[in-house]
What we know:
Structural class of chain A: mainly alpha
Mean pLDDT of chain A: 81
Radius of gyration of chain A: 19 Å
Shape of chain A: elongated
Strand content of chain A: under 5%
Low-confidence stretches of chain A: 143-165
Oligomer: homodimer
Helix content of chain A: 40-55%
Largest sheet of chain A: 2 strands, antiparallel
Largest interface: A-B, 71 and 70 residues
Distance between the termini of chain A: 10 Å
Amino acid sequence: xxxxxxxxxxxxxxxxxxxxxxxxxxxxxxxxxxxxxxxxxxxxxxxxxxxxxxxxxxxxxxxxxxxxxxxxxxxxxxxxxxxxxxxxxxxxxxxxxxxxxxxxxxxxxxxxxxxxxxxxxxxxxxxxxxxxxxxxxxxxxxxxxxxxxxxxxxxxxxxxxxxxx
Amino acid sequence: xxxxxxxxxxxxxxxxxxxxxxxxxxxxxxxxxxxxxxxxxxxxxxxxxxxxxxxxxxxxxxxxxxxxxxxxxxxxxxxxxxxxxxxxxxxxxxxxxxxxxxxxxxxxxxxxxxxxxxxxxxxxxxxxxxxxxxxxxxxxxxxxxxxxxxxxxxxxxxxxxxxxx
DNA sequence: ATTTACAGCACCATTCTGGTCCGATATGGT
DNA sequence: ACCATATCGGACCAGAATGGTGCTGTAAAT
Lengths: 165, 165
């Protein structure tokens, strides 16, 4: 269905939770799970991964917990996705050459790389700080595009297909 | 890994193949599978789905096959993805309200909807005609953004994390 | 009537995902 | 020193989704 995994979804919610806490004392996994209403073992697992990858700082022992490793302004959605989900690659050939055996035949490779870069940039342009703010977007060409989209709700009408799962 | 399914990937390649054939006589599943070097039963299944959803016109019997239902300029990548993969929804709450039980707690819902719209629009702005063309992009604010991205290869340097699978 | 080729559907193996659990280790407090 | 608290690093598991196959039926052309 072209969606992020729950792991990533939860992970970003947890990061946002950490970013929106006023003080910077570490929060432990149980507290975070409770305040986000997510399954505790799952939360624990995700936090571990985020710490291992350097997006969170972990503190062991009593009074331990997790803190953001950087300022919310310096943590992009793209990076969180990459850490939890792996690299953004809509198709195999979207990253680079010689990953797909059909290269010589397939004419669609290069356009995919462009599309991929657009999506990645859209995600890189939103930071954790934007997520916990009311009006979410600020800088960059794509942010401008976003605002334009918000103004005109349906620029090119496309019928919603009668798709059944 | 945040990627499209093979079904969608193949489907778009097949659509592109049909868009790039000079004459508009129908191509059958076997021919398409051979020229794209993809497993024939899989190709057949995907073409059926595309025809059922109205993106292709099927012709039965001998000399039958598949044709594009519309001009390549009128078939967007977003639509092909939606037909083959389902609606674009990066998270559960990205579409609308009351799909997620955490709404009252979660502060991240609205930003996700915006991000989702950006991604969807990026995909809606590229048509099948663009995919089979050399210089792929034309109109719209996002297309401009894409060209800008192409000019400056790495606008905001982000370290590539030492991620292992 | 025969051949060609799509339509629909059931089926299967493998992988991925969401979720759980446990022993080890580090820290703070008593 | 000891204990409670928490993270760390695994293994582990059930169920769903994915990629891929096969078969029967039906429409069209010769």
